[in-house]
Design a protein that fits this description.
Number of helices: 10
Distance between the termini: 55 Å
Order of helices and strands: EHEHEEHHHHHHHH
Largest sheet: 4 strands, mixed
Helix content: 40-55%
Number of strands: 4
Shape: globular
Strand order of the largest sheet: 2-1-3-4
Structural class: mainly alpha
Length: 292
């Protein structure tokens, strides 16, 4: 018996190499980032771009906070996707790293874009992805994705039962416990140096306070707020212009409420950080025209 075929979405996962032999290699003004600061994946890339001081080398097109099509689709990105994959079956979603020489997408895979940005483009900022720290940085990235983000999503989901809810919260609190211990007596997740690990943790904390807490009970949010080192660290990083200037609080709220189908819980009333008091509120997200 034959089984129905499934649509295979082409993988747009090119990488930036070290020199001209790689095809895609780091050349100033060749590439462009297409980001929306309301999305955590794009926000990580935007913060990394800011920390590296790549504003003149690698331009950014900002997209609206709320996608204008289904499944996170942006109509403005559809021509790029079509040029890179004829009749591309998946959504034309951000983030994207595009190549101005070919008019095609290099990558739409956020983790690879982040690694290549920090590992291949030489800006004016710190070395965010040093070779000696990469295993630890990737471990922190996995913890943020699976034990923080996914656990918080599960904990706020309806219909998973009390056992599933409790398991998710325990996973979330274990992750927060580990990060709180890492910050004992140090300013960064890795001792003495600002790295991509800090970018992953900071964006995850932003999401936890601005998105996930809306679907958690008040007791859980009060316990989350009790991680004093973590939230002091989050406020300290938010005060850095290269980080906090990318925080679009209004955009995050609009994207969340436009897409979320969950039920609001009592934790929504328990704000953990007054982010607006620590960072300048950016202008509303809007598309910018490509330059040059």
């Amino acid at each position: 018996m034959s089984t129905p075929s499934q649509t295979v979405v082409p993988s747009l996962r090119g990488r930036i190499g070290g020199d001209a032999r790689s095809g895609h290699y780091p050349v100033p003004h060749r590439y462009r980032l297409h980001l929306t600061r309301s999305c955590p994946q794009s926000l990580r890339i935007a913060v990394t771009h800011g920390l590296l001081g790549l504003g003149e080398t690698l331009p950014v097109t900002l997209l609206p906070a709320v996608p204008d099509g289904p499944e996170g689709e942006y109509a403005a990105l559809r021509p790029l996707y079509e040029a890179s994959s004829h009749q591309h079956p998946g959504p034309a979603a951000a983030p994207v790293l595009s190549d101005g020489w070919t008019g095609r997408i290099v990558s739409a895979h956020a983790p690879d874009i982040l690694r290549d940005l920090a590992g291949r483009f030489s800006g004016e900022g710190p070395g965010l992805y040093p070779a000696h720290a990469r295993d630890d940085i990737e471990e922190v990235a996995r913890l943020c994705e699976h034990e923080l983000h996914e656990a918080a999503q599960r904990a706020g989901r309806l219909g998973i039962g009390s056992s599933g809810h409790q398991d998710a919260l325990e996973s979330l609190f274990r992750a927060l416990d580990g990060l709180e211990r890492r910050l004992a007596g140090r300013d960064h997740v890795r001792d003495g140096e600002l790295t991509l690990a800090d970018v992953h943790v900071w964006v995850s904390l932003v999401q936890l306070d601005t998105v996930h807490r809306w679907h958690l009970d008040a007791t859980a949010v009060h316990r989350i707020a009790g991680y004093r080192r973590l939230w002091a660290y989050a406020r300290r990083l938010a005060a850095l212009p290269a980080i906090g200037s990318h925080l679009d609080l209004d955009g995050i709220a609009r994207r969340h409420h436009a897409r979320c189908r969950g039920q609001e819980a009592a934790g929504a009333a328990v704000q953990i950080v007054d982010w607006a008091a620590h960072v300048p509120v950016p202008s509303p997200s809007r598309p910018t025209q490509p330059t040059g």
